[in-house]
Write a structure and sequence with these properties.
Helix content is about 30%, strand content about 20%. The chain has 23 helices and 30 strands. The structure holds adenosine-5'-monophosphate-propyl ester. The site of adenosine-5'-monophosphate-propyl ester (PRX) has 21 residues, from helix 14, strand 20, strand 24 and strand 25.
């Protein structure tokens, strides 16, 4: 009876609420302002930037970024749209990416650290690679690739490596020769790597024998054998496997070498000591690398990034948004195996002659103070990480940052929407209330930032990424293609109206999918050669506030459609986090015969807190009061931990499948697959695993591929 009455009430509420009201339930937060000290030293403070990068100056505005590079030959056409939507930037121009990131810095910065590396093992010394040393190592590796492997411009090489300095050395050696690298995240399995080898048709795989993860030395060479086998099973042969050694004086693997196929890089290098390989002058439009988006289901997509446009864009945004100076010690705690690491550990910072920090291991190993110890030890003053890491560091060591003497001038987040709760901890505790925060929204496909505050010029607003960055012109459409202007108070699909130099060129080997996935939805005329007719569909839900700030609600497939109303899961999760006991929250849709989908909530508690019905009830209440009864969850489940990918993203797809008693599919790439069964038994009881596939949106829920 009581339940029936509540349902009736909830339905009434639904009818009273308009979609516009729902979209603005996440209350607007107050602004936070950068300090005068930060503003005084920032790269970008000139108000004329808005005019310079205004639509009337598009596309020539991007000269400003391209002019930060050293060109062998200046370009003739800034943007060529003749083969829409395959845009071409800086056509006629020639340059070499490795030259721009290494050689040109030798004049002034040969003796300055390009890379500072921290092993996960705190007893190992810090490694500092000066620009001169990087130059030598990159040249020797380029000689191995050219002379030993016989590689040439346009060939593909797959790189499956952990976070060690040899990884950027390998990438830059490829770039020096115009070889297209495809770096596969080190934490991916051999099978996942094999699929990507096959797709890119790489004949060379570069890997490492082992590395540390959570205190264990992992045998990584074993993954190479699986990768080669997998590629072979798909009809593609790998000719050589090059293996870097984790330690100078001992092997980190017990997997034997395959005669005639496997080679230890350190041995090969001996033959090429001191060899200098001239950088190959590449057309701006030549592909620089492929980056596969994680393919937990379906075929992974190889996003193809360009040479000139990409480097110009990441250099410009590193300077203006990351505020990198040559004197900074900059730490982006991403993995180079993801786009963030390519753009904002390697290419952008090195093109600016910065010092870029790399850390091999798990941020909370051996304890929750590790990150702050590294920051203190190396003198890091710019810190860049993800909301997931922020939540994790907060959960495990809320007071740890206070114990260390680092001094951040600015901090960045990327990868997911950040809840104001977590943002405020980052700001007050990690940043001591003085570091400027940029919340940067973008994607693997984009090369660099799309939305973010300009750190010295715009106020910060917790939970909102910010306005578009210079030269980016977004539009938010509803499903029918109607524009929802800033202040419309409704959620829609965010698109970018214009091309920009960092945008990927195509999906490797699948141009049709490229057009279909990113352009068809809102294309105005398939024959048009005018960029205005080709908005780029980002696949994210967003609201655009009156002040011009964008709030990303998550993937379009992350949005729960309750009785025809769109509820961003992040809005619900943010509400859950206002309950002080909650450390992490994940909201998934469950199928409801009447209302379409209703949310179900999973929460993990802070250490030392005992689960209770009372906490679950307060979570429900928090959602009802922040969002409304329409968002009332079917259940709140307190779980020991969330299932997560190796990169730390919560696998909502798995939780959604458990909630819906569906087959949860492949979980082998998770960092903690064992927790899945625990949660399943908690939710479904100990009976047999269900094999029903269930509806598409649930099966793929939260997938960002
Ligand atoms: O949903 C958006 C979310 O991450 C997606 C892109 O994921 P990926 O290609 O793996 O690249 C991550 C790093 C660039 C986006 O479609 N996302 C990324 N950054 C943010 C974000 N969501 C909200 N706020 C962000 N700052």
């Amino acid at each position: 009876m009581a339940e029936a009455r509540e349902n009736a009430e909830a339905k009434e509420d639904e009818m009273r609420l308009t979609e516009a009201e729902i979209a603005v339930h996440w209350k607007e937060e107050e602004y936070y302002h950068p300090t005068p000290k930060f503003i005084g030293q920032a790269n970008l403070t000139d108000p004329a930037v808005s005019e310079r990068f205004s639509e009337k100056n598009f596309p020539e505005c991007f000269r400003e970024y391209a002019d930060m590079l050293t060109w062998d030959k200046y370009w003739t056409t800034t943007l060529d749209t003749s083969n829409a939507p395959f845009w071409k930037w800086f056509v006629g121009g020639k340059l070499n990416v490795c030259y721009n990131c290494v050689d040109r810095n030798l004049g002034k910065y040969a003796n300055k650290a390009a890379i500072l590396w921290a092993s996960e093992d705190e007893n190992e010394p810090i490694v500092a690679l000066t620009y001169q040393e990087l130059y030598v190592q990159v040249n020797e590796m380029a000689a191995v690739l050219r002379d030993f492997c016989g590689l040439k411009t346009g060939d593909r090489v797959t790189v499956h490596m952990p976070m060690v300095p040899q990884l950027p050395v390998t990438m830059l050696a490829c770039a020096r020769l115009g070889i297209i690298h495809s770096v596969v995240f080190g934490g991916f399995s051999g099978e996942a790597c094999g699929t990507r080898i096959e797709d890119s048709k790489s004949h060379i795989l570069i890997t490492m024998d082992g590395y540390y993860r959570s205190g264990k030395l992992l045998d990584h060479k074993a993954a190479a054998d699986i990768a080669v086998k997998k590629a072979e099973s798909e009809g593609h042969k790998v000719e050589k496997v090059l293996i870097w050694r984790r330690f100078r004086d001992k092997s980190a693997t017990s997997t034997p070498l395959v005669e005639g196929r496997d080679y230890i890089v350190d041995d090969l290098l001996k033959k090429y000591r001191g060899v200098i390989v001239p950088p190959v002058s590449m057309p701006a439009e030549a592909p620089l690398f492929l980056m596969y988006t994680s393919g937990s289901t379906g075929k992974p997509k190889g996003c193809q990034h360009s040479t000139g446009g990409y480097l110009a864009y990441v250099t410009g945004t590193s300077k203006y948004i990351q505020d990198i100076h040559t004197t900074d010690i900059y730490w982006c705690m991403a993995d180079i195996g993801w786009i963030t690491g390519h753009s904002y550990i390697v290419y952008g910072p090195l093109a600016l002659a910065a010092t870029s920090v790399m850390y091999e291991g798990v941020p909370t190993f051996p304890d929750a103070g590790r990150v702050w110890r590294i920051a203190e030890r190396l003198g890091v003053n710019i810190f860049h990480t993800s909301p997931t890491s922020i939540r994790m560091l907060r959960k495990l060591g809320p007071d740890e940052p206070k114990k260390y003497h680092y001094d951040f001038k600015s901090m960045t987040t990327v990868g997911e929407p950040i809840e104001p709760e977590a943002w405020l901890w980052y700001y007050h505790v990690v940043g001591r209330g003085k570091a400027a925060i940029t919340d940067t929204w973008w994607q693997t496909e984009n090369g660099g930032f799309l939305c973010s505050t300009k750190p010295a010029m715009d106020a910060m607003k917790p939970g909102s990424t910010g306005p578009p960055v210079p030269g980016i012109f977004p539009v938010v459409y509803d499903e029918n293609g109607k524009e929802l202007p800033p202040g419309a108070g409704k959620a829609g699909n965010i698109c970018i109206r214009n091309p920009w130099p960092g945008l990927f060129q195509t999906i490797w080997g699948d141009p049709d999918r490229f057009v279909k996935q990113y352009y068809v939805k809102y294309n105005k005329d398939p024959k048009s050669k005018d960029w205005r007719d080709w908005p780029y569909f980002a696949g994210d839900g967003a609201t655009w506030a009156k002040d011009g700030y964008v709030r990303i609600l998550g993937r379009v497939d992350d949005v729960i459609n309750v009785a025809g109303h769109r509820l961003g899961t992040k809005e619900l999760e943010s509400a859950c986090l206002t309950v002080p006991e909650i450390a992490e929250a994940a909201v998934v849709p469950i199928v409801d015969p009447e209302r379409g989908r209703v949310p179900e909530v999973y929460v993990a508690l802070k250490p030392g807190i005992k689960a209770s019905d009372e906490i679950a009830q307060r979570v429900t209440l928090a959602i009802e009061t922040t969002i409304g009864k329409i968002a009332r969850p079917r259940a709140v489940r307190i779980v020991p931990d969330m299932p997560k990918t190796r990169s730390g993203k919560i696998m909502r797809r798995v939780l959604a499948s458990i909630s819906n008693r569906m087959d949860y599919g492949d979980i082998t790439t998770l960092s903690n697959p064992e927790v899945v069964e625990q949660i399943r038994v908690q939710v479904q009881g100990a009976g047999p695993v269900k094999t029903e596939k269930g509806p598409e949106d649930i099966r793929r829920f939260g997938e960002t591929t």
